[in-house]
Design a protein that fits this description.
single chain, mainly alpha, Zincin-like, 2 domains, 4-stranded mixed beta sheet, about 75% helix, globular, binds zinc ion, hydrolase, metal ion binding, Peptidase_M48_N
Length: about 400
């Protein structure tokens, strides 16, 4: 294998990824106007359905433009030996290899952020605005951006520094140490996400005493699930879209409800949505996901350790000698077919878990409010009722609404 062959492998993989995504979203597009299945006929009123169709079409066009800009950007960058140029520039500033690597990723991050910020601005203030989802002000948008940079700098930069130091110190054994470090960091992040990260972006307060809290507690007691930490977050300051999630383990375990969820769903529907989440805990999905994620990380790091020192990979990107950062970039470009396979497998597993969590909610609570709750969430986010099966298979972490309702109805 020569650097040139490897170079064209990288180009081939990038183009293949791009084309596959385009084909999938086009297939989805051709299914937008499929007749609505009978079970879902009450999700939208005619006028709302037309609005959702228009929203999907606009999202489709915008998504295509987005992917097109990214692929052109990255191809131009690679053909102009961009990675080599950034590498040289960083080396002109310092001789310290660790600092060179950090600077290198810093430059790439800023470049990609500069490219994507106008797109995300357009998405928020033009598309989401037009369909009434956006609640973000321009001030909040840029404030979020700046906070995001600091987070990336501290968390991303910090983790990267540790990994580079380990790499310089442990040589070929480094993947294993790196694996342990990443594992610990991800556990800590999940554990303290609500305490440390959320307050940077949102206000949260315990759910007030009242009938909703009573209903949730009653359900939690009935299934023997410890749930005293119930928080409400001001999601409405950015978007009308609603959500709820669990985070943390043990004593840090808590559920967070968006204020938009409380506005849009009835109390029974909220309890049903939480019953689904409790199902994920009871069926040990959180543990399995953690295990699967950890194994994937270990596998990825091991493969990376095999090739990081290869001069061939560096030369494919126009750099004469290997280094941590060039090795990492080349690796991720080449790794994408493998990560596509692991992501498909993870999606298959995740959809299986979603059915199980739905079934748990139906058995321990009720089917009807979960079904109407999911329908309302679908409606208020103008979600797709008729996704193409290939898209569901490749990209959906959840089964389609139709699949979920059909499965729930079979339980009774
Ligand atoms: Zn779920």
């Amino acid at each position: 294998m020569t650097p040139t062959v490897l170079f064209y492998c990288i180009i081939g993989i990038l183009v293949f990824d791009f084309l596959l995504n385009e084909v999938l979203s086009f297939l989805n597009y051709t299914w937008y106007s499929k007749p609505i299945p009978a079970v879902l006929s009450d999700v939208y009123k005619q006028e709302e359905y037309e609005k959702s169709q228009a929203y999907k079409k606009e999202r489709f066009k915008f998504g295509t433009l987005n992917s097109f800009i990214s692929i052109v950007g990255i191809l131009v960058f690679i053909f102009l030996d961009g990675f080599a140029l950034v590498d040289q520039w960083c080396r002109s500033i310092t001789n310290n290899e660790t600092v060179v690597s950090l600077l290198f990723f810093g430059v790439l991050f800023m470049a990609s952020d500069t490219l994507t910020t106008p797109l995300s601005y357009y998405s928020t203030f033009v598309i989401e605005e037009k369909y009434g989802f956006n609640k973000t002000t321009k001030k909040l948008f840029f404030l979020d951006k700046i906070k995001g940079w600091f987070m990336t700098l501290i968390l991303g930069g910090g983790l990267l520094t540790v990994l580079i130091l380990i790499y310089n110190w442990a040589d070929s054994n480094f993947w294993w140490y790196a694996w342990i470090v990443i594992f610990i960091v991800s556990i800590l992040l999940n554990m303290f996400y609500a305490r440390l990260i959320v307050p940077i972006f949102n206000k949260q307060a315990p759910l007030e005493q009242g009938s909703l809290r009573d209903k949730i507690s009653e359900y939690a007691n009935q299934v023997g699930f410890e749930l005293t930490k119930i928080f409400v977050i001001d999601g409405s300051k950015r978007s009308t879209k609603a959500n709820a999630y669990f985070s943390g383990f043990g004593s840090e375990k808590r559920v967070t409800l968006y204020d938009t969820l409380i506005d849009q769903l009835t109390e029974e529907e909220i309890v049903a949505v939480l019953a689904h989440e409790v199902g994920h805990y009871k069926k040990k999905h959180i543990l399995y996901n953690l295990l699967a994620g950890t194994l994937t990380t270990g596998f990825t790091l091991y493969l990376f350790s095999l090739v990081v020192d290869s001069d061939l990979m560096a030369q494919a990107l126009g750099v004469s000698n290997s280094s941590f950062h060039i090795g990492l970039v080349a690796f991720f470009l080449l790794y994408s077919p493998i990560s596509m396979v692991t992501s498909i497998l993870m999606n298959i597993l995740s959809r299986k878990f979603e059915y199980q969590a739905d079934a748990y909610a139906v058995r321990t609570y009720k089917a009807a409010p979960l079904i109407t709750g999911l329908k309302t969430l679908t409606k208020t986010s103008l979600s797709n009722l008729t996704p193409h099966p290939a898209v569901v298979w490749f990209q959906y972490s959840h089964p389609s609404l139709l699949q979920r309702i059909t499965a729930m109805q079979k339980i009774n």
